[in-house]
Amino acid sequence: MSATLESPLLANRPIAFAQADVTQPLTIAVAGNPNAGKTSLFNALTGLRQKVANYPGVTVESKVGLWSLGPELHAARLIDLPGLYSLDAISIDERIARDVLLGRAPRFAEPDVIVVAVDATNLVRNLYLTSQLIEAGRPLVVALTMFDLAEQSKLQIDTDKLSRALGVPVVPVVAKRRRGIDALAREVLQVATNNKRPSAHWRLSEEAERELAILSGNDPEGRYQAMRDLYAEELPVQRGRREAVKLARKRLAHANAAWWQELLIARYDGIERVVADAVRYEGDGRSSITERIDALVTHKIAGPLILFLVMLLVFQTIFSWANLPMNLIDHVFSALGDAVRAHFPAGILTDLLVDGIIAGVGGVLVFLPQILLLFFFITILEDSGYMARAAFLMDRLMRGVGLHGKAFVPLLSSFACAVPGIMATRTIENPKDRVATIMIAPFMSCSARLPVYTLMIAAFFSGRRVLGLISLGAVIILAMYLLGIGVAVIVAWILKHTILNAPSAPFVMELPPYRVPNFGNVAHTMLARVGVFLKRAGTVIMAISILLWVLVAFPRTASKNGIKHNDPTIAQTTKAVTKDAEAESAADASSLQVQNSYAGRAGRLIEPLITPLGFDWKIGIGLISSFAARETIISTLSIVYSVGDSAKEQSASLVEAMRNARRPDGSPIWTPLVALSLMVFFVLACQCMSTVAIVRRETNSWRWPLFMVSYMLVLAYVASLVTYQGGRFLGFS
Amino acid sequence: MRRTSKYKTNLKLNDGRGSATSLASVPHGSTTRVVRVNGSGAVALRLMEMGVVPGAPIRVVRTAPLGDPIQICVRNYHLALRRVEAETITVQEVVQT
Questions:
Q1: Beta strand A155-157 with A279-281: parallel, antiparallel or unpaired?
Q2: Rounded to a whole number, what is the distance in Å from the CA of B72 to chain A's nearest CA?
Q3: Do B1 and A3 lie within an 8 Å CB cutoff?
Q4: Which of A192, A612, A660, A687 is deepest in the core (most CB within 10 A)?
C-alpha cells in the first residue's frame, strides 16, 4: 500500500433534520458483528415479548420484539438482525441485514434508529461495521456490550471521547445485568427526535478522489453514493451510471491493482486512531483464559478427544435419553386415540380423527424432545464459543469431501434424527455448502432405521457369530452405518463438483472468546426453534399423514363383523376389542382392508419393479407406507401379515410370520438376502416425510426436497438391486 | 509506513533483515506485520474486513491437529483461516522491543 495514504475524518458533523414524530411507534433495528452480544441485548430489551419472523422469500429468520422506551410512549418495534461483519455482505443473512440497515429491503420498514452492538472487548474490529454505518449517515446509537468484561480485562474505555470522535452516542451496557438499558433508551429517543445523522468521509488517494469527484459531479452530498457505487461489489442498476463506474474502476485498477483495498485501509486507520485516543489498556496482554482453554481444546491430541467426548454426550442424549419423553408422547397420543375410539361411534370420521389427525399430530410432536435437546446443546456449544473450535478441528476432514468444518455437527446430529440435524445446518453461511450438507444428512442412519435393522436381524441373522465371538447382527448394523457414511462422502463429493460447485467460500472464521452461556438466551433459542418446527414442518407432516391414511383406508372393504378400526400405519389401537376371536377377525379384516386399499393396489402395481430387489407386493405395501416414516413398515407388515396389532405380541409373531411367508410355489418370501436387500434400501432411501418437510422449509423450495427424494430413491434401488442380484449370483439366498 | 503503535505492545518492523514471506510459512508464536493482502476475491475482502489490513500485527497461535487450518491472533481477537488463505497474506516478521 502506498505510504502516502492518509485517512483523517474529513467531516464529522451531525446534521440536524426536522423533528421526528415520536408519538408514532418507532422501528428500531439491532445490528452488530456475530458474537457481539446482540441477542443478549435484544432479549434484555424485549424480555419475552418477541417472536420469530421470516424475511419474505428467503429462509433467513429475524426476531421482532417490543421495547418500552418510556412510560407515555408507544413500545418500539425492535428487530434483531442477523449478525454481519460489514455492509459488503457475502452470505444471505448478511445481505438481508445490510438491506434493512440501509433501508433498501423491500416490504420492510426502514428503521428509525439503529442500535449497533459493539463488543467492548473487541473494539477495533467491531467498529468497522459502525464506521460503514456512520458513512452511510444512518441514525445510530452504539451499545458497548460486555462492558463488564472489558473492565475486567483492564480496558479503560472513555465512552465520551469515543462518542465525540465517532459523532454518535455511545452507551456502555451489560445486557445480562440490565446495566445501561435506560441510558440506551434515552439516547435512542434523543436520536429519533433530533433525527441527527452522523457522517464521516475518508480522504483517499488523489486518483480515487478524482474518480469520486467525477462520479458525484463534485457535489459533496453525492459523495457517499459515489463511494458506494465505486467500491461496493455490485454495480449500479442504471446503465449510464454503471458504465461510468466500470470505467472509473478500470482507470483505478490500471494505476494500482489493489485499488479497492484503499477504502478498507482508510476505515481501519481511522478506527485505530479513534480507539488509540479513547482506550487505555492496563493489562499484560491477551485474554488469558480463552488462550489457556484453547491450548487444551485445540491441542493435537486432547482436542479431538474432547470433541469426541462432547459429541458422545450430545449423541447419547438425543439417541437414548430423548426416548423417555418420546415414548411418553407416543403413549399419550395412542391413549388419546383409544379414548376417542371408545367414545365416538365407529365410522369413517372417527377413523380420520384417530388414524389421520391424532396420529399425525402425535407424529409431529414426537420429534419435540429430540429437537429441544439437540438445540439445547447446539445453542450452548455456540454461545460458549466451542462450536467454532469444533469446526476448526474438523475442517480439514470435512474439506476432503468439499464441505465446511461447520458441517460436522449437523451431520453427526443426523445419526439421531435428520430433522434437527438439517435445522442445525443454519450455522453454515455458504448456501451451496449448506445445501450439500442437507442433501447428505439423511444418509446418516437415524434412530428410526434402528427398529427396522433390529427386526431384520432378529428374523434372519440372530444367534450367528463372526469369528466366533462377535455377533453377526452387530457387524451388519455397523456395516449399514458405514454404508450410509460412505455413500454420503461420495455424494457430497459429486454434488460439490457438479451442481453445487462454487469457488470455495472463505473459511475465515472468528474464534470468539469463551463465555459462559446465558441460559435465558438458550431457552429463547430453543423455544424459537420449536415454534418454527411446529409451524412449518408440522403442517406438512400433518397433511402427508392424512394423505397416507386415505391411501390405506380407501376404498373401504366390507368386513364380516363391521369392525374396522385398526390403525393401518401405527400399531397402537384395538384395545377396545376384548375377546381373542374377535381380535383375530379384526386383524384379518384390517389385513384385508390394507390389501385392497389404494396402498395395497399400489403395492401390486410396483411388484414388477421391486421383484428384482427380492421384494413381493406385501413388502411393497410396507415400502410405500414407510415413506411416511421408516419405522412404519413394521406396523404395516404386522397388519398385512395379520399378526396381533399390539406392540408386545407384534415383534415375536411378526418374525414368525415373516419366516413362514411363502410364495405360491412354496418358496420362502423372506430370506437373509431379502432382509439384507431391504436394509440396504432403508439405509439409502429418503423415507421420511418429516425430513422432506424440513428440507422444503430450510431451502425454501420444493426443488431440493424433490431432488433429494428422487436421487436417494434411485441410489437405494440400485444398491438394493446390486445386493440382491449380486448375492444370488454369488450363490447366497 | 507511518503507523503509531497500538495500545497493546510496541512493535517495530525489522526492515531490511526480515524478508517478506507468506503468513502460511510463519512459525507458531512469532509476531508479524501484514505487508500486503494479495488477491481480489471474496477471500481478500473478508480477510480485510476482519482486520487483516496492511500494517496490522498478526501472531500465529497454532495449527489444527490435521495441519490445517491455522489460528491467528489479529487486533486482539482470534481468527481461523485455511492455509490457502494464509498464503495470500504477505507478512514481515517483527521484533518486539
A1: antiparallel
A2: 9
A3: yes
A4: A687
What is the C-alpha separation between A700 and A23, in angstroms, rounded?
Answer: 38
pTM of the full structure: 0.78
Asked if B67 and A396 come within 8 Å (Cβ–Cβ), the reply is yes
Distances (CA, A) of A633 to A103, A449, A451, A545: 53, 10, 10, 14
Candidate from B42, B66, B77 with C-beta closest to A122: B77
Query: What tens digit of pLDDT does each residue of A481-512 get?
Result: 889 989 999 999 999 888 888 766 678 889 99
As a residue count, chain A comes to 733
Q: What CA–CA distance (Å, rounded) separates A48 from A57?
A: 27
Q: What is the chain A residue with the closest CA to B3?
A: A269
| Closest of A76, A63, A96 to residue A26, by C-alpha | A76
Closest CA to A494 of A681, A199, A714: A714
Closest-CA residue in chain A for B43?
Answer: A506
Is there a contact between A85 and A122 (Cβ–Cβ < 8 Å)? no
Identify all chain B residues contacting A511, using CB atoms and an 8 Å cutoff.
71, 77-80
A406: which DSSP letter?
A: G
Is there a cis peptide before residue A672, judged by omega within 30 degrees of 0? Answer: no
As a residue count, chain B comes to 97
Residues of B in Cβ contact (< 8 Å) with A299 = 65
Model pLDDT for residues A558-608, shown as the tens digit of each residue: 654 444 444 444 344 344 444 455 555 666 677 777 778 888 888 888 889
Partners of residue A124 in chain B, C-beta under 8 Å:
51, 75-76
